[in-house]
Write a structure and sequence with these properties.
about 475 residues; alpha+beta; 10-stranded mixed sheet; 8-stranded antiparallel beta barrel; 12 helices; about 30% helix
């Protein structure tokens, strides 16, 4: 999930999601490596605001003492405070000023001036809770639109991040501002939840099922349709949970229909294609992928001689420096003794050969999969191929591909050194999820997304 960014932190392709040393996506979240965050939601300006023009801006926790704003159209910026009480914004994660100035009233009044447009914090019904997962106590929160009306509820399922969803997931406010209830919880071993961190998909699925049960209990008569929204690693967890205990819908963002081990292999192939290397180099890179897999499957006990031999054989060839993959980069960079010592704990619980296809072939739950065409961390080509086959076989799957988005569903700019800097979510990404949750259907246009169904595909193009 792969790297997930929280509902709000961009992934940087240095650490990979399988290493779980990341921060969640703008689970507008749930999986590069994301920049670590250490802010706290103690900041009283955190909230969703209705502006005078009718639009919504969300203000959430971010790095250090900063805040991050997000709009439903996918635009976002980092806010830095100044002694006189004003805040200035930089575009996406570029550190480039975007000209937006923000002002807040005192906390009790809950007013905002966003780029010259005044607004008011949206009042929401919020209930914090602690509930039992699979053998652990988890911390969660139900957020509903104000009132007594029955509303759909979406349970936000983590990717592989370590940070608190309760603090960083912006969708816990953005969806309720759009008339949708949200249940958000800290994954076991993170934030305020108990237990030890794990990537055991079955255990995490059990926790997700418990979260649905708690959401229903708290919402009572207000609970309408209920389902999951999951990013990155959550794309393995949420369908599994839905198969064990049915829900009304599942949304997967930048997830995979291949195994974690295949993810690394596909990421290496993406590395080679992005550098325009041909079949001969690709075959050599796949030798590296195979050697890396052997070490992982041995639980870091053996296989180093084969990888060392390949490093000696190909290490000076131009393509070799571009081999990253999802985890192979670490096996190439770290000494064998460090890998033997730290690897087993680092990858504890990861089901490397988990095949999601048996679950997906038999899952009757309506699903929306949203993928990025330039996802270097969890390349989408094979997943798209498999989902299209499932569609033709009659599975209730809607598939949308944003051709220029990377992991976390972020648009980006490429720097001269080849690294990427994220700028925003694609236009239409939030609206697509909102519409699917509310009605189970999609409209004709969601930015530049290409929408696929069993009959074929069509582009959904709009300026962004």
């Amino acid at each position: 999930m792969r790297t997930l960014r929280v509902p709000g932190v961009p992934a940087r392709r240095i650490l990979r999601s399988m290493l779980w040393l990341i921060v969640p996506m703008m689970s507008i979240s749930a999986g590069g490596v994301a920049r670590a965050a250490d802010a706290s939601t103690d900041n009283c300006h955190v909230g969703a605001y209705r502006l005078g023009d009718g639009s919504v801006v969300d203000v959430g926790a971010s790095e250090g003492s900063h805040l991050r704003w997000r709009r439903e159209d996918g635009t976002t910026g980092l806010l830095a405070s100044h002694p006189e009480g004003t805040w200035t914004s930089t575009r996406g994660w570029t550190d480039q000023p975007d000209g937006i100035k923000v002002g807040f009233s005192d906390c009790a009044a809950g007013r905002i001036d966003f780029g010259g447009i005044r607004g008011q914090r949206i009042d929401l019904d919020v209930t914090d809770t602690r509930f039992q997962g699979a053998g652990v106590t988890l911390a969660g929160r139900l957020v509903l639109p104000k009132g007594n009306a029955r509303v759909p509820i979406v349970v936000l399922v983590h990717g592989s991040e370590h940070v608190s969803a309760l603090e960083y997931y912006s969708l816990q406010r953005m969806f309720p501002a759009a008339g949708i209830g949200v249940f958000v919880y800290d994954k076991r071993g993170t934030g305020a939840s108990g237990g030890r961190y794990t990537q055991n998909f079955l255990l995490l699925a059990d926790d997700a099922i418990a979260a649905v049960d708690e959401a229903k209990r708290l919402a009572g008569k207000r609970a309408g349709r209920i389902g999951y929204q999951a990013g990155s690693e959550g794309g393995w967890v949420a369908p599994l949970a839905a198969k064990i205990s049915p829900v009304d819908f599942v949304i997967v963002g930048f997830g995979l229909a291949v195994s974690p081990l295949e993810e690394d292999r596909e990421a290496i192939a993406y590395d080679m294609r992005s550098q325009d290397y041909g079949p001969e180099v690709m075959a050599r890179a796949m030798q590296v992928a195979d050697a890396s897999a052997a070490i992982l499957l041995s639980n870091f006990r053996s296989g180093y001689d084969k990888l060392d031999a390949l490093k000696k054989r190909y290490g000076n060839e131009p393509w070799f420096k571009h081999v990253r993959g999802d985890v192979t980069w670490a096996l190439l960079a770290w000494p064998a003794e460090k890998l033997k010592r730290e690897g087993p704990a680092l990858f504890a619980g990861v089901p490397l050969q988990y095949d999601p296809m048996p679950v997906l072939r038999h899952l009757a739950t309506p699903q929306l999969w949203i993928l990025g065409g330039e996802d270097a961390d969890a390349p989408s080509a094979e997943t798209i191929k498999r989902l299209r086959a499932l569609q033709r076989a009659g599975r209730p799957i809607m598939l949308a591909v944003y051709p220029h988005a990377e992991h976390g569903m972020y648009k980006f700019e490429a720097r001269k050194d080849g690294t990427r800097v994220d700028t925003r979510n694609p236009d239409g990404y939030f609206a697509m999820m909102r519409d699917f949750i509310l009605s189970g259907r999609l409209q004709a246009k969601y930015g530049d997304a290409v929408l696929h169904d069993a009959a074929g595909s069509h582009s959904s193009r709009a300026s962004d």
